[in-house]
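Work Package 3 (structural annotation) set out to generate three-dimensional models for the target panel prioritized at the project kickoff. During this period the team completed the workflow that converts sequence records into discrete structure tokens, so that structures can be stored uniformly alongside our sequence database. As a representative example, we reproduce one entry of 384 residues exactly as it appears in the project archive.
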Amino acid sequence: FISFCCIFEKRNFIHNMNFNFQYQKNPNFPNRYISPESLHQFIYENLSDYVSEIGKSTLGLPIYKFSYGSGDINILAWSQMHGNESNSTHCMLDLWYSLESQPELKERIFKNISLDFIFMLNPDGSKAWTRRNALDIDMNRDYLQGASCEMQLLKEVAFSKKYDYGFNLHEQRTLFSTDGRNPATLSFLAPSQDFDRTVTETRKKSMAVISAIYNVLKTQIPNQIARYSDEFYPTSTGDNLMKAGIPVVLFEGGHFPDDYQRFGTRKYYTIALFTALSSIGLLENKTFGYERYFEIPENKESHFDIIYRNVKLNTDFECVLDVAVQFKEEIKEGETEISFVPIVVEVGDLHRKKGWKEIDCTGKKFISQNKFPKLDAVQNFTIE
């Protein structure tokens, strides 16, 4: 009876925990874009006691692993496997900065766990603000072949000792919502390890961590947390590590309302990472509360960045349609922050889709050198 009560109390504690974590943005990284050079300088000046170089990228840039904690539960995390997903790096930089002013909390968390965090696994792609590495390899589909030296490094580290959990940190596009109305600011996944999507004990451990994150954050960003599709991808990193017996938690940072710099996403991504680390120390490799994972709504691909409704084109016949625009992110030479370039991505009847911004063009004039907007080209029209 006593043992049962302890388990029940721990389960409730995990799902109602509040460590009074105070988020603070790391002022050394004010922009969404992080150059490898600025990251490496910060690491050298501030984290040298905890960091080691584990190898180099395709173009010879160093890749660093941060190690901290004295606990028996080993966690491996990696950021910017896709170079244009910097919130995955921001969350660790912000977490450490926040905990520096909360030493008791830091000690409490890291006495139960030992964290190895690989910063910016794809520094070549990060520098160019591209998803793929310098050889145009999507590293998240390179697990089996291991054609990229960066994936070889990740696998070498992942099997260098027994890791109890793995955190695969990513970002997702602005297309996704939780319910067709609210953006999927954060999405999570306990990857499948087979085509049947079997709920194994290993997956349950990942689900338990995600459930703890969801229960803490659902009141802070209500209706903005989703569950990613658990379709099995035979060549992907998370699926194969799960298959190898390492419970993997996939993090996806997404859109935050009216915030394309993703400062809001960055904040809650950091809180999610903190909560994951905290809950793992309490879960002790158990699966308490994993069932709540299935309460999280699935991602819906429902939105464009902008939809111009009821656009009347300058054609010789009556032509009224909708035009969808997505922002393409790019880093220009010499700049320290990304630019957003509007691209026409769809034209026609878009009544089944929504825009984070919608502009009704009824009674307004389509101003352009062309009679109609060109698909996959930069937006070259205005509405007056």
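Residues 103 and 204 are 32 Å apart (CA to CA).
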